Each structure stands twice: as C-alpha cells, then as structure tokens.
Amino acid sequence: MKILVVVKMVPDVVEDLEVAADGRGLDAEYIRMILSERDNHALEQALLLKEEYGGSVTALALEAPDMDEVLFTALAKGADRAVKIVDLPAGLTTHGAAQVVSQTISTAPGLWPADLLLTGVQAIDDLDGQMAPLLSHLLGLPYLGIVTQIQVDPSANKLTVIKEYSGGVRGEFELPLPALLGIQAAEKPPRYVPVAKVRAAMKSQHIESVPAPAAPGPAAAQVLEMAKPQVSQQTEILYGTLEEMVGKVADILAARGLL
To answer: What is the per-residue pLDDT across 96-113, written as a single tens digit (0 to 9) for each?
Structure first.
C-alpha cells in the first residue's frame, strides 16, 4: 500500500505574533514555526497503516523554516521517503498551496499514483479545513474529513472510515481507493522518536527537493487587512429579558453605524 502524507509548518501560537508592515500577514521574522498538529496525526496514521498492511509512506511538504528537521523526524519514525517542494512563490495562500501540491504530486517522479493520500483535517492557519478538499478536487479523488479510524480491504480496493461528528456521534463510511482523507486524530498518539535517531536519519537518509511548478492562479479570497486584537475596557453587560437585550444590542450596533 502506497501512502502519501502532506504536512506543513504553522505558526506557534504560544509565541507572540506580529503583523507584517503591509498589514496583510504575519511578520515572518518573529514567527516560530512548528509542524501542524493534525498533520502530525496524519503521519502517525500513515505509519500505523503501513505497519498493519505493509507498503510505503512518503512525507511531502512545502519548504518552510525548520522543515528539514520535521522531515528527518518523519524518516526516523518510519517514513520511507521525504520530499520537499522548494522555490515557492511569495504570499502563498491555502488555495495556492493546494495547487502547488497537487501539481507536484501529479508531475514529480514516483509520487503518483498512490493508494491513499492523508493530511490534517485543518491547521491553525486554515481553520476552515480547505486544504484537503481543495486537493481532492484538484486531484479528482473522493474525500472524507474529520477521520479518526481507517480500515483497509485490499482485496476489494476500498476503505472503511470512521468520521467524528459533534455531540459524540460517529459515522462509518466506505470509500474506493485511491482516496484522500483529512485526519482529525490518529488511532494512537503520535510516536516519540529520540533525538539520536533523528540525527542518525540525517546521516543515513536524505530529503529530496523538487521545484515548485508554475505559479498558481489567483486565490478565490484574499486577506485585505490584518490587525492584532486591541485591549479595551469598554465591556458592557446587558440585563433584561431576551427581547430587551436584543433591542439593546440593535441600538448599540445602529449607533456605531453597523446596522
């Protein structure tokens, strides 16, 4: 079974984030990048499937600060191949990243065809969870997100997948292979790998670099302005019946020109 896992770095929100001078993004100079938590779970799920059904796991990533360490860690955990997309265009949006990744998967040697493509269902900088469905559309693959369990039936060339819903509800679905899944959580916590093993992978294995394809088309939506939240002492608590409080809210919004 050939599994491809798409991973990416995201800002560490534990650190203070600064808005760039143009007001349309974060200042990269002050950002500490970490592996997206859901992508880490996607990698772990891929390794669990490899251990159960055999095959190979390839980690594919967009170039970013500290990405090499993440990819060597993936190799140390048991991934068979690590590929990094380099020479990326500036200001890449989620839509643009999906175009770059899909074109790379389609054209880079040895990446496609694959039986299963996994990625995190969402990320700190993609809370709408658009990356996976965009990839599925561009690659023409069936997609299911918020996945927590996967069973493979190689003889029937299909998957049985558990999807989480709010309120503790779960749904069971069957998908044909190949397919793309957005992982919410792996069936086991992401494994720990010692630093010594990562360093050994750095000496014995390598990361393949492939250039980004042609610049992606325009994004469907663009960020026009970004600003840090402002501390305010203007909190007002409304009292009364539901109808009275709704009327007060409407009056406040109208007074500020918002209605």
So the answer is: 889 999 999 999 999 999
